[in-house]
Specification:
- Keywords: ATP-binding, Ligase, Nucleotide-binding, Protein biosynthesis, Transferase.
- It comes from Candidatus Uhrbacteria bacterium RIFCSPLOWO2_01_FULL_47_24.
- Heterotrimer of A, B and C subunits.
- This protein is of the alpha/beta class.
- It has a domain of 228 residues: Alpha-Beta Complex (Amidase signature (AS) enzymes).
- 38% of the residues lie in helices and 12% in strands.
- It is built from 16 helices and 11 strands.
- Strands 1-3-2-4-6-5-10-11-9-7-8 form an 11-stranded mixed beta sheet, with helices on both faces.
- A hairpin with a 2-residue loop joins strand 10 and strand 11.
- Helix 7 packs antiparallel against helix 16 and helix 10 packs across helix 12.
- The longest helix has 24 residues.
- It is globular, with a radius of gyration of 22 Å.
- The structure holds glutamine.
- The site of glutamine has 14 residues, from strand 4.
Length: 522
């Protein structure tokens, strides 16, 4: 019998409904686990224990009074520290926001609160979600629960590690270039990056507004679906959101909106077919040759190929495809992402909120001796901006601000920014073409399993290469999911499945069927 904190959402929901345990007991089990392991794992920046237990108490009273709880009601969740929870500190793991307390709830938080969720606290991440290892936080380095000497991946490091270490039942992260899928793969949990625009970004501290999306980390595919259904949908506060198909409509729709034949394909539901062969009959899975590259870890490749062979056993037709522009996706990303980030981070200026040389922070030794005027060598307002930013931002945001400002500057914007936008369209077209031939695409999530802490910190390029298989989905705006598919060198490996825009249902069907057979075999 698993401990309460080890349950999935679906299992916890059943237990609450049957009154086998209370939400307070479930929440307490998670809080106890945080006390037990977080000193080592370092997943949390803020734990809202009191508020969590109070909310659990509210749910327990309702259940006692005979109300049947909703799917997420009374279930503890951890939130990446780039998503605003009213009244709770939100730092983006940056010193520049070290004393910022959110004044409103992000739309996803509003939705979770309406669903009765128990918010356990805020998780550590790479500063402003820039990074692939969790080491870029200004506060702490999150460790991989499978091997504490290794990174958990990033940027949603704490959200992935807290689920893997059973400090919560599920968590929310954000994915701009892979920050949900890559840490999910390295920590051996499920991570969903929804279609761009399917989940509201209102209340998410913006990094790259044309790429960012919020999504869940969970212990099962079913749970990922439950959370996605709860947080998705059009939001008047985010003009880029769209109405999403309901799950029933989605299963009846053509798997490829770009096919244009108006034909509707039905896929057998995994539940209806048991765990065996044939569950994925009729499903065409593309395997792009550009995603098995030289230099990729051999054991990781072998494990992912075994995962794909398993899909074939389930009845899927495996088709080799080509995404010829994919090799350019990483270069496109590292022009567009810094460009958008440099614009978004301009608001952190030492005047409106966060760290300011006008309000020296006791934590920053070099802020102890501001110039006598407190205004940066008497440079007036500009001096306040420059000095506050110099002190408040860490190395990685500074690097991105410089790259972004450069690629947007007069004389260079055509050569870099506009060129990258044009290639972005080509990457997207690659996927459009591929989805006329296949229903979904299977790839590795990461070219290697978790690496040692410190190993890549002096070489930003090797860190950027960690995103090589994930960024293309953000460039094309399509959904992707990473599910555990075995181990390499004793460490978790992720299988990534990509689908056309708004094709989350296809992801859940394929990985749901896969997960069932894998857990039954093991
Ligand atoms: N690792 C990538 C980066 O550093 C992706 C980050 C993310 O998805 N937030 O930009």
């Amino acid at each position: 019998m698993p401990k309460l904190n080890e349950l999935t959402i679906a299992q916890a929901h059943e237990g609450l409904k049957k009154k086998e345990f209370s939400s307070q007991e479930l929440t307490k089990a998670c809080v106890d686990r945080i006390y037990e392991v977080d000193e080592k794992v370092n997943a949390f920046l803020t734990v809202t224990e009191k508020e969590a237990l109070a909310q659990a108490n509210v749910v327990d009273k309702k259940i006692k009074a005979g109300v049947v709880p909703g799917l997420l009601e009374g279930i503890p969740v951890a939130i990446k520290d780039v998503i605003l929870v009213k009244g709770v500190k939100c730092t983006a793991s940056s010193k520049i926001l070290e004393n910022y307390i959110a004044t409103y709830d992000a739309t996803v938080i509003k939705k979770l609160k309406q669903a009765g969720a128990v918010i356990l606290g805020k998780t550590n991440n790479d500063e402003f979600a820039m990074g692939s290892s969790g080491e870029n936080s200004a506060y702490k380095i999150t460790r991989n629960p499978h091997d504490l000497d290794r990174v958990p991946g990033g940027s949603s490091a704490g959200s992935a590690a807290s689920v893997a270490a059973h400090e919560c039942i599920y968590s929310l992260g954000s994915d701009t270039g892979g920050s949900i899928r890559q840490p999910a793969a390295l920590c051996g949990v499920v991570g969903l990056k929804p279609t761009y625009g399917s989940v509201s970004r209102y209340g998410l501290i913006a990094m790259s507004s044309g790429l960012d999306v919020i999504g869940p980390f969970t212990k099962s595919v079913e749970d990922a679906r439950i959370v996605f259904e709860a947080i998705k949908g059009k939001d008047p506060m985010d003009a880029t959101t769209v109405e999403c198909p309901s799950p029933d409509l989605a299963s009846a729709r053509s798997p490829s909106p770009t096919r244009g034949e108006g034909e509707s394909r039905q896929f057998p539901s995994p539940q209806g077919r048991g765990q065996g062969e044939g569950t994925l009959r009729g499903m065409r899975v593309g395997v792009p040759k550009e995603y098995f590259i030289d230099g990729m870890d051999n054991e990781t490749e072998k494990t992912v190929r075994q995962g794909i062979a398993q899909l074939e056993k389930l009845g899927a037709e495996i088709i080799e495809i080509s995404l010829p522009y994919s090799p350019y996706a990483l270069a496109v990303y590292y022009v567009l992402q810094p460009a958008e980030a440099s614009a978004n981070l301009a608001r952190f200026d030492g005047i409106r909120y966060g760290h300011s040389v006008l309000r020296p922070s006791p934590d920053l030794a070099f802020a102890q001796s501001p110039s006598p005027s407190g205004r940066g060598e008497g440079e007036g307002l500009y001096g306040v901006y420059a000095k506050s930013r110099a002190e408040g931002f860490g190395d990685e945001p500074k690097r991105r601000i410089m790259i972004g400002t450069y690629v947007l500057s007069a004389g260079y914007a055509d050569a870099y920014y506009k060129k990258a936008q044009a290639v972005r369209t080509l990457v997207k077209r690659d996927f459009d073409d591929a989805f006329t031939k296949v229903d979904c695409i299977a790839t590795p999530t990461s070219p290697t399993p978790a690496w040692l802490i410190g190993e890549r910190m002096t070489d930003p390029l090797s860190m950027y290469l960690a995103d090589i298989f994930t960024v293309s989905a953000n460039i094309a705006g399509i959904p992707g999911i990473s599910v555990p598919c075995g181990k390499a060198h004793g460490l978790p490996v992720g299988l990534q499945i990509l689908a056309p825009q708004l094709g989350e249902d296809i992801l859940f069907r394929v990985t749901g069927a896969y997960e069932m057979t894998v857990s039954h075999n093991s």
